[in-house]
Every structure is written in C-alpha cells, then in structure tokens.
Amino acid sequence: MKTGKKIIKWFLYLLFIPTAYIIMALILSSITVDRKVSNENSEKLIYLNTNGVHLDIVIPIEYVDSLVLSGIKYNQNDTYLSFGWGDENFYINTPTWNDLTFSTAFKAMFLESSTLMHVTRYRQKRLGWVEIKLNELELKKLNHYLLNTFEVNQKGMKIILENKGYSSIDDFYTSKGSYSCFKTCNSWVNIGFKDSGLKSCLWTPFDFGLMNKYQ
Q1: For residue 62, what is the DSSP state?
Q2: Distance (Å, rounded) from C-alpha 187 to C-alpha 193?
Q3: Which of 16, 130, 174, 196 has an alpha carbon within 20 to 30 A of 189's alpha carbon?
C-alpha cells in the first residue's frame, strides 16, 4: 500500500513540473516589454518567420553588418538572410518533425549541449513573414547580438559545418550558449529583440509569444 502511495506521489510530482512550466511560460509570454523608443525614424524593415514551432530573424542582406556577413555563405542574387539558433543534435538529426525522437527532445531540453546558428538565404520575401520596423540604433544592436552568438576559431572566423544544411540555400555554423527548456530557440530571438530595445516578451519559450506582439 505504501509503495502504491509513493508511486502516485511521484507521478503527481512529475505531472506538476511540466504543468507549472507551461502555465508560467504562458503568463510570462503574455507580459509585454515595451519598445524603448517611439516609431520615429523607424525606416528599416526586418521580419519574423516561424515554421509553427521555431522562430527565425530575417534581415535584408543590405542591413546585415559586414562583421556578421564575414564568413557566411551567400550569393549575389540573395536578398535576405534568416538567422535561427538551436540545439546542435536537434538541428542535425531532426530535419523534419517526423524525425523527432523522445531522446533528441529530452537531451535538448534538459541536458547541456552545443548549439548552432542556422542561416538560410532567400531571394524573395516569403508569405507569412511578419514585418517589423526598427531604427538605425536598434538594427545596430541586433547585428551586435547576432555577431556575438556565432562561435569563431582562433583566426576569428565563423565555423561552418560543411554539407550539413537541409538544402542548397542553408548552412549551419557553430554558436555560443547551451540550449535548455529555459533558453530555447524562441527565447533566443526574444532576448535579441529585448537587448535591441524592441518590443518583446518578459520571457517566452514559444514562437507565438513574440509573434503575437507583432501580428
């Protein structure tokens, strides 16, 4: 009888943790950190993109700082670069959601792991991108945030993972930081917006947290 009670007790504990996480995430996602300045002189356009789970920051190449561009593969006909950050094992071994396994998800959420920057090249604007206006200073801060996310080698060059992209228009680069349930791909974007002075969530692990602020 005592064993049965212990099992039930531990089951309730295990059920409480994800429930509490989701509730807290929803509450903090709904709290808006307002933009630090007004819309004056906000003539630059960037975009938010989501695949339904994962957020990317999309920036016209002309607005990407030369230091960020250095070492990144792109072509003359490319117009936009998309930046996403995430767990290395998850990125490499889960090209589609059908490839997702419990082991991969568990390691990404709860174990310290290496991370990657996913850079995708686009020639045209895509449907579904959410437009965001920002000024020169905000753009400069966002570029600085992106630059400091890339890991570099001893020569100061970005480190590309050769032939690991999903298609002919994307590549992976090693990056700083460790992925967890508290710092997800989406909270990375949110932190970048917050550090740049843009409207953001207090904290969010979900894509819709930030998307809802701009749609």
Answers
A1: G
A2: 10
A3: 16
Can you tell me which residue has the tokens 């710092």?
183
pLDDT means per 10 residues, the chain with 215 residues, are 51 62 91 82 91 94 97 95 93 62 54 87 96 95 98 94 93 94 93 96 94 92
For 151-185, the DSSP string reads -B-TTS-B-EETT-SSSTTEEEEEESS---SSS-H
Give dist(CA 24, CA 71) in Å, integer. 39
* φ, ψ dihedrals at 76, nearest 5°: -60, -30
Q: How far apart are CA 56 and CA 62, in angstroms?
A: 18
SS3 125: coil
Burial 164-194 (b: 16+ CB within 10 A, else e): ebeeebbbbbbbeeebbeebbbbbbbbbbbb
Residue 110: the pLDDT is 58
